[in-house]
Each structure stands twice: as C-alpha cells, then as structure tokens.
Design brief:
Strand order of the largest sheet: 4-3-2-1-5
GO molecular function: nitrile hydratase activity; transition metal ion binding
Enzyme class: lyase
CATH superfamily of the largest domain: Nitrile hydratase alpha /Thiocyanate hydrolase gamma
Shape: elongated
Keywords: Lyase, Metal-binding
Number of strands: 9
CATH architecture of the largest domain: Alpha-Beta Complex
Protein name: nitrile hydratase
Number of helices: 22
Largest sheet: 5 strands, antiparallel
Catalytic activity: an aliphatic primary amide = an aliphatic nitrile + H2O
Length: 488
C-alpha cells in the first residue's frame, strides 16, 4: 500500500481546495461521546505490548500509517490505520507468517471467472466459523443458512465483493460468481408451520458454497449438533478475546443445548420439542445479538475483522497472551479514571512553589508527585493566563499525555482537528464554546515527537475558597488539552 502521496503531515499536505470542498473539514468536529469498541481497545493495547517486548515501536507504527494511500487513509478510522500498520509490520518482520494470519483472517479473495456450480447442483453453505475476510458477524450470507444444503436455482452473474477491504489491497474489485440458492423452509426452520414444499431463495457468493457431497473441513464442525456445540465451546476457550456478541450467541446455544439434554433420558417427545426450540432460539438470538452490536458500536468497520484476526493470531503464536492483553487494556483506561491530570492541576492552583517546579521541570516533578516509576514520554506543562491560551494538537498522529489523561477522545484523533487546529485555532476553540478576546495570544503546541503536553487551565475566581475535593470536580479533560476554559 506504499504510495508517493503519503499521509506524513496532514496540516501540510491538505490543500486549500480540500479545505473548501472536503465534507468532513467543512463540518464542526464530531464530538459525540462514545466508548471505544472492544477491538479498538485491543489494538491500542496490542501496540503497547509489542513495544514492551521490543517487537515494535511508535516510529514503526507511524511509518506504516504514513505508507497508506491518502485516498484510503481518509476513509479509515484511527484504529483501522493502526491495525493495518501493526499487521504489516508483524508480517514483514516475520513475527507472523501470512499463513498464521490467514487462518484467522481467511484466505485472500481473488477475482475469478470460474463458475464452479450449475443450475440444479446440490450445495452446502459453509459453517459460521468458516474463515473469511468479509466483515463478521454481518456477512452477506445469513446466519440461518450456515451448514445448510440447497439447490442452485440460478446463476446470477459475476459481482464485486462490496465489503472487501484488506491491508494489502484496497483498489481491486474482487469478482465472485453469485448464485440464487433454493432451500426448503422446513430444513431451515425446525418450527416452520408452512407447507412441506415451501422454499426460500437466497443470493450467495461462490466462495461461501461447497458441493453438498463434500465433507466439512477440519476447521468446520459437522452437522451433528453435539459436535457443533462442543466445537463452539472449545473455540471460546481458545479465543476469549472475541466480541461480546459472539460469546453471547454461543452462550445461548449452550444453555438451550444443555436444557435439551436434561429431557433426553426422560421423555423422547420432550427432546424433540426442545430441539426445535433450540434451533429457533439460536437463529432469533443471533439476529438480536447482531442488531444489539450494531446499535452499540455501529456497523462493523471494514478493517475490524483484520484487527480481530491479528489479535487472535498473535495469541495463538504466544506473542502475547490474553491475560496480559486484558491487564494492558485496564491500565490504559485507568489514567483517566484516577484523575491524575486533575490532581496535578489542583496542586498547581493551591501550591505556587509546586507550579513553578512543574512549569520548569514537568517530567521529574510529575514522577515525584504521582509516585510513578517512570513516564512513557517527557512531559511539558504549560499554563493558561489572562494573556496566553495554550492548545494541544498532534498533526502527525495523535500524541497525547495518556499516562495523565487516559485514552484520547475520538475528535482529538480526527483528520478535522489535526488539520484545522494549527491552521485556525480560534474557529476550533469556538466550537467548544471558547471565545477568546482578540488581543489574547494563542499558543498551539504540536506534539510531533517525544514530548507530551499538559495545560494548567485558568482557575475561576469564584473558587478561591473551595476545597481540594471541590476543585477536583471542575477540572475537565478538555481543559487540560486547551480546547476550553473551566466554567463553574
């Protein structure tokens, strides 16, 4: 994905024409508060773990991100870029082989004009743990068809896969034969109340189909239900990092499967009844779970499947383990929760001597005050006054005082903030409700290398007699980045 048109410095390479016509840059910053999806938290933590193991560093991460084609870069989210960069490095350095990744990510799709099936052929749909590069769980192949057999009703032609976006190729249309496959309704829904010859036709791409006579591969469960549940259970033990909705999906299956077996030895009729209910519940549960996932996290992003595959492959190869990944996610979230930055600001407000030391020797003063063993980056503290307002940005990626403030907000990482903040800081500040006097000097700090910045916001005059606890409650994250003042 190397391109001459690299995304090295957004503030420099963005043209005036783009500023006037780019829809994202014309809109106010999207400051919608949201929790990062679990896969994004994982990728964030994976980088930290790989750095601690001397497998990677932030310079390598940045190089990989800068090598993404500009047109593609602009379409990707922040952690999608990270996932692509980390994956590329793991492959290029031999940490993972292409086969290691493909076991999770699925084999590369390629354009093909080879039509493998004809009208009338009996085919089987792959099971749901079939490795594919299509975004899961929201595949073009509905979950209720996994493992089911049907008849090719019609060859529809050749179509490009609309969801395919891989780290090594983004501009190729991967053409696949598309078929309409006819299934008997009573074979799909065990509770089906209609006629025995009712059918349902579904469009399915060729790579999701195999001859019905072909046995399932070793990576797919067979149609025996006991085996299906056992396999799913093992899969979860082995891949405990998977999305919550996937885990819950199988949890429902296990619960009703066990419930079914409780009745097996007592009453054969009851066994059949619960067997029907089990299948019905699984299909309905999958739909509910997938919709819940969309409602909570939005439609899965194109590179999300790559990110999850990368994490799974690194765990399988024992490069990282799931417990240290969990701990790293937790510690990277804690900085914001522990109010480290706010405690520094309040101490500076209350202790002039501390503030002076802080402004002159930020790193050593903060290490001593917070009783830290070390800091990840040198820290520079700047103070807002009646004459100067400080604003922090990183135009290269999103360098941020994580040890003090936690994970940066989405808007701080956005193209829009990184392009507009250095060019026109007053317009950005205005969006946060920060309207400064015309004669006030604005100092923008572009965190491009090894320093991280913390702003001491102005203390509201009305708080002169407030306690430390009261003051802690009014210090906001945004005020310590400099996008707003503190209001009471």
């Amino acid at each position: 994905m190397v391109s001459l048109d690299r995304v090295a410095d957004l503030a420099s390479i963005t043209t005036e024409k783009e500023l006037e016509n780019d829809e994202e840059l014309l809109q106010p910053l999207d400051r919608t508060i949201h929790d990062y999806a679990y896969w994004e938290q994982q990728i964030d933590a994976v980088l930290a773990l790989l750095c601690s193991k001397n497998i990677m560093n932030t310079a390598i991460l940045r190089k990989g991100i800068e090598s993404i084609d500009k047109a593609v870069y602009n379409k990707l989210s922040y952690y999608e870029r990270w996932a692509i960069s980390i994956t590329t490095h793991c492959l290029e350095s031999g940490v993972l082989s292409q086969d290691d990744l493909n076991k999770k990510y699925g084999p590369p799709l390629h354009s093909t004009d080879e039509q493998l099936f004809q009208v009338g052929d009996k085919v089987r749909v792959h099971h749901e743990n079939y490795a594919t590069r299509w975004v899961k769980p929201h595949l073009r192949t509905p979950g209720y068809l996994y493992g089911k057999t049907g008849i090719i009703e019609r060859f529809c032609g050749f179509y490009g896969n609309p969801e395919y976006l891989a780290y090594e190729s983004t501009d190729t249309i991967h053409q696949q034969p598309l078929y309409r496959v006819r299934f008997n309704q009573k074979d799909i829904w065990n509770h089906y109340q209609g006629n025995v010859d009712d059918t349902i036709d579904v469009e399915i791409y060729q790579h999701w189909l195999m001859p019905a006579s072909q046995p399932s591969s070793s990576t797919e469960e067979d149609e025996d239900e006991d085996h299906h549940h056992h396999h799913s259970d093992q899969e979860h033990k082995h891949h405990d990092h998977k999305h919550e909705h996937t885990h819950h999906d199988h949890k429902h299956e296990h619960t009703h499967h066990d419930h079914k077996h409780e009745h097996t030895h007592h009453d054969h009729k009851h066994e059949h009844t619960h067997h029907d209910h089990d299948h019905d519940h699984v299909h309905e549960a999958r739909a509910v779970i997938e919709q819940t996932a969309v409602n909570r996290e939005g439609t899965p992003l194109p590179v999300q499947h790559l990110a999850e595959s990368l994490v799974s492959a690194l765990i399988d190869k024992n490069i990282i383990n799931s417990e240290e990944l969990r701990k790293k996610i937790e510690t990277r979230q804690m900085a914001g929760i522990e109010q480290r930055g706010a405690n520094i600001v309040v101490e500076a407000w209350l202790n002039p001597e501390f503030k002076e030391r802080l402004l002159n020797a930020g790193t050593s003063t903060i290490i001593e005050f917070l009783k830290l063993d070390k800091v990840d980056n040198d820290l520079v503290v700047v103070e807002n006054t009646d004459k100067i307002h400080n604003l922090i940005v990183c135009t290269l990626c999103s360098c941020y005082p994580r040890q003090l403030l936690g994970i940066p907000p989405g808007w701080y990482k956005s193209r829009s903030f990184r392009i507009r903040a250095p060019r026109n800081p007053r317009s950005v500040l205005k969006e946060f409700g920060t309207i400064l006097p015309k004669d006030m000097k604005i100092q923008v700090h572009d965190s491009t290398a090894d320093l991280r910045y913390l702003v001491i916001p102005r203390r509201p005059a009305i708080t002169q007699n407030w306690s430390r606890e009261q003051l802690l409650q009014i210090v906001t994250r945004d005020s310590m980045i400099g996008v707003c003042d503190i209001t009471v």
